[in-house]
Amino acid sequence: MELARRIKEHRERLGMSQSELAKKVFVSRQTISNWETDRTYPDVQSLIILSGLFGVSIDALVKEDSREIRDALATGAKKMRRLGAVAAACGLACLTWVIVGIVLDLNIAAIAVPAAALFIPAMIAAFFIDKMRHDNQLYAYQSVEAYLAGEDPEVGCRYNQRAGRHWVARRVVQTVLAVIVGLCCGWGAAGIILRLVEG
Questions:
Q1: 187 and 111 assigned to the same domain
Q2: What is the pLDDT of residues 107-152, one digit of tens each?
Q3: CB proximity list for 146: less than 8 A, separation 6 or greater
Q4: Same domain for 130 and 41
């Protein structure tokens, strides 16, 4: 996209590093790098700040790119939905297998090996979803929802920026809790089914 080239050219014209520009636009240096390498694109608020810093209109920055930006949004949203479907299907299949294995009174290895084979793709898909969220700075639920709808996710808004702090630590805690809850639900559901079958 031309926008990536224009951002880099204007930044270099002003003699600014990516880090310096990032501070002025209130984003990370990695975000500037992503914009300049065409991996992601700026939200509306960032475009307003960039146009003011560079002394050009927003139209001059994004002309010829608006269609490409919409297409990039649509493509990213489709990919995120597909990854979500894979994660949900594999996670549900894993949970179902654990319940079936317990009901059938299979040994732990017979339950764990297939369950792991189903759980690993779910975790890989979830990892790529999180990577897309991080690369596009989609930390708040509202930003993800807007992104999936093909709208401007407004990553520069205060709520999204606040949600981005301690993002990695929160994801680790959420993953550990999800595994614990999943195991508890699996064992609990299997116990109830066993009682119903035996009783």
A1: yes
A2: 888 888 998 899 899 989 988 888 887 777 676 666 677 766 766 6
A3: 152, 153, 154
A4: no
